[in-house]
Amino acid sequence: MAADAMSKIGNKDLYRFINDWAGVRYRFGGLDKGGVDCSGFAYLLQKEIYGHVLPRRSRDQATVVNQRSESNLREGDLIFFSFGGGEIDHVGVYLNNGFFVHASTTRGVIVDDLNLPAYRKVFTGGGSVKNITR
Known about the structure:
- The protein has helices at about 1-5, 10-20, 40-50, 60, 115-120, and strands at about 30, 35, 65-70, 80, 90-95, 100-105, 110-115, 125-130.
- The chain is an alpha+beta fold.
- It has one domain: endopeptidase domain like (from Nostoc punctiforme) (endopeptidase fold (from Nostoc punctiforme)).
- It has a six-stranded antiparallel sheet with strand order 3-8-4-5-6-7. A two-stranded antiparallel ribbon has the order 1-2.
- The radius of gyration is 13 Å and the shape is globular.
């Protein structure tokens, strides 16, 4: 349950960031509360919470992570998806117990369950952001 995942977040700044952005609508190329896309949300979260400056596109963000097995994902790790069947085209931020936060094209910024079939079949992996700083 998403509320349970939120209650288990260890980093309180991360918790506040997600609460602050929850429900912001999806807008391709967006980088503010008027609308944000998945890679923009991951970009803003990583910069504000962890001090990482990521590339802007999800497929490029995937090149700056140290891959981890799914069972070893940790809070704040980036996770990637390929809805189009080829290149990575979606990114989220792992929370805990199979839950992640992302900017959904239909529901905006939301906490979702990685174990839902719609995500299982397109999940490509994830990991921690390499040591890149502002």
